[in-house]
Amino acid sequence: IDVFLARSLLEKLYLFQYPIRPASMTYDDVTHLSAKIKPKQQKVELEMAIDTLNPNYCRSKGEQIALNVDGTCTDETSTYSSKLMDKQTFCSSQAASNVSRYAAAVYKKGELHLTPLHGILQLRPSFTYLDKADAKHREREAANEGGDSSQDEAEDDVKQITVRFSRPETEQARQRRVQSYEFLQKRQAEEHWVHLHYYGLKDSRSEHERQYLFSQGHGLAENTELIKSPSEYLMMLMPPSIEEENDKPMAPSNVLSMAQLRTLPLADQIKILMKNVKVMPFANLMSLLGSGTDSTAVLRCIQQVAMLVQGNWVVKSDVLYPKDTSSPHSGVPAEVLCRGRDFVMWKFTQDRWVVRKEVAAVTKLCPEDVKDFLEHMSVARINKGWEFMLPYDEDFVKKHPDIVQRQHMLWMGIQAKLEKVYNLLKEHLTPKKQEAQSAHPLLVSGEQRVNMAKAKVKQNYGQLEKEFQKQKAEMKSNDTSAKMDVSNIRIKEEPVSDDEPMDTSAYKGMNNGFVNGLHAEEDSTDSLNGRLPGGCIDRVAQELKAFVSSTFKKQFVLTLSELKRLFNLHLASLPPGHTLFSGISDKMLQDMVLDTGCKQILVPFPPQTAASPDELKVYALWEAGDTYDQHRQVLLEIFSKNYRVRRNVIQNQLSQECGEDLNKQEVDRVLK
C-alpha cells in the first residue's frame, strides 16, 4: 500500500470526541445552532439543539429547568426562549497534550492518505445554566427578605469608604501572581471567542473540504521524507541503541546516567551533580564533566549552586530545599531549613568539628533535620562530634585566590544575617580549640606580618651577603669597571603601616588555618592585610571613590559599620580579579569618605549605649547639590548637639535658620 502525506489541512485539522448517545440518535440528526473557538487555548464551545419530540425526552423536566433558569418572564436575555430546555452547550478539553503521533487516514483505491492532527478535543456538557438558576434563586430570596424600607435606603446612601493604596509589587510577588490559578483563569477569559459556521455532513462545502484529506500531488518531491531504503526503514524500526537499553535493568526514575547528563547544558549538569553529591572538590567535579570542559565556565556556574567551605564546594541550601517545600520530618518550611543548614555550613567554615547539640540549641530545629544537615557534609566521630568529610583543598585555594576572596565576602554577609536571626553570642562565633587542628592563625594583623618579614630578612641576610660577595668577586675577575655597593642590594621588607585592617573581630581566634578557603601562610596572597601595590593605587582609589559617592547619594547618612557592610556586599558582586580585591583598610575607607565631600557627625550618644565603635562613627553627605542642602546641614548640626530631638524643635530650628516656613511634607522629606 502506498502511503501519502497530505499537507492541505496541516495545523487546521481537529478531532472532536462527542459524548456517547443512544444508537437511535446519531449526530447527523443533531442540529448545531452555533459554534465558537479560542485558537490559542484550543478551546471550543458548541451549542446543539435537543430533539424535544423524541420519545426519550422528558418534557416536564425540560420545562422545570427552563423555569429555574429564566423565571416566568421571557426576553432577549433568556437562555430558553421556548420555555423548554431545547438546546445544550458542550465545552471542550484537550484529550492529549502531544498529538504529533496522531493522524487522520483515508483509504482510497489502494492508497493511504495521512493528515496530521493539530488537536484532539473532548466535548463534555456544560452546566452553566445551573449557575444561572442558582443566581435567580438567590435574587428571589433577597427580594422576599423585605429590608427595602425607605430608612434602609437612606442608610445605604451614606457609606464610609476606606481608600487604600497598593504597595509596590516585588518581583517574587509578581511571579507568584502570574503563576496563580486566578491569573491564569483571567488570562484565558481575556481571549476573545471566534465565531464559526457549522456545515453539515452532506453539505457541499463539507464535500469540498473533505477532498483536502487527499494528497494533492503524488510527485516524489513532495513526499521525500517518506522515501527510505529498506535498510534505513529497518534501522528506524529496530535501532541498536534501543536493543542495548532493553538488555539493561531498568534504573529508578530519579537516576540519570552520565551519558544523559552530558547532553544537558553545563549549568544543569553541575546543579544535578552537586544536588546528588552535596560536597565535592573542584578537581573531582572537572573529572566528572569530561575532558575539554572550560574550567572558567565551570567556576562561573558552580558559584550559582554551591558555596566554598574549607576549599571544597558544598551545595547551597536553597537548591536542596526549594521554595514552597517543607521538612519531611517536622513540616518546617524551606526558608527555616535553609537558615539552619546555612548555620551548619558557616560553622564548618570556622572549624573542622561541629557539635550537634550546639546546632540544635541555636537553630531550634528537630534532631532529625539537624542530623540531615550534618550528614550532608560531615562524618560522626565517637566522643568528638561531627568532622567535615573532606580534607582542606589547599591546591584550589592557591590557584584561585580571587574566587576564595569572593566567597569570603559572601560568607561575611551570611554571618551578619545569622547573627541577627539567631542572636549569636561570642561562644557561637568563636570555635573551640582542637588539639589535632593546625596551629595557623586565621587572619594575621599588619604588625605581625611586618615582624615575620623582618625575622625572615634577618635569617636570610647572611646568605644574601655571601651571594653579593661572590657576585662582586666574579665581576672583579672579569675586569669590569662597574662597581657595586651594598646599598644596591635591596632586601625586601614589609613596610610598617598605621592603617588598621578592616574589622574582622567575628573571625578572631579561629585556628584551623583558613577562612572559607583563605589560607593564612607566609607565601599566600596578601589580599586582606598589607599595602596596595603602587601601580594600582590610582585605579583602586577611583573605584573606591565611585562606590562611596554613589552610596552616599542614595543614603545621605551612614555609620561606618553600615558602610563596611555595603562595601562587602559590593565586593561580593564584583567579578573575580577586580582591583578592589587588593585590600581596603578602614582608614582608607574613612579618608575616601571625607574626600568625597562628606563630614563626620559627632553625635553625642549616651555613654551606656551597647553600640560598637563603628556604629558610633556617623558620616553624612554635606552637599548633594539639591534644594535641601541647607536644610540637611541645619538638621545635622542639631544632631551633633543631641542624639534625640523632638519634631517640633526640628521644624522651628529649620524655619529660623532657613528663613522660611516648611510644611509637614517638606520636613518629612528632609528627615527621611
What would you note in describing this structure?
The chain is an alpha+beta fold. Among the domains are: 2-50 and 86-140 and 181-196; 258-422, no CATH class; 536-671, no CATH class. Helix content is 44%, strand content 13%. The chain is built from 27 helices and 20 strands. It has a six-stranded mixed sheet with strand order 2-8-5-4-3-9, with no helix packed on it. A three-stranded mixed sheet has the order 1-7-6, with no helix packed on it. A hairpin with a 3-residue loop joins strand 14 (378-381) and strand 15. Helix 18 packs across helix 22 (560-573) and helix 25 crosses helix 26 (647-658). The radius of gyration is 40 Å and the shape is extended. The N and C termini lie far apart (84 Å). The model is unreliable at 242-253, 433-442 and 479-532 (pLDDT under 50).
Can you lay out the helices and strands and say which pair or pack?
Layout: E1 2-5, E2 14-17, E3 32-38, E4 43-49, H1 59-70, E5 87-94, E6 103-108, E7 111-116, E8 119-125, H2 128-144, H3 150-157, H4 171-178, H5 181-190, E9 194-196, H6 204-210, H7 230-237, H8 240-247, H9 258-261, H10 266-277, E10 279-280, H11 282-289, H12 295-305, E11 306-309, E12 312-315, H13 317-320, H14 334-350, E13 353-354, H15 356-363, H16 367-377, E14 378-381, E15 385-388, H17 394-399, H18 401-422, H19 426-429, H20 446-477, E16 514-515, E17 518-519, H21 537-555, E18 557-559, H22 560-573, H23 586-595, E19 598-601, H24 613-616, E20 618-621, H25 629-639, H26 647-658, H27 664-671
Helix pairs in contact: 1-2, 10-12, 14-16, 14-18, 18-22, 21-23, 25-26
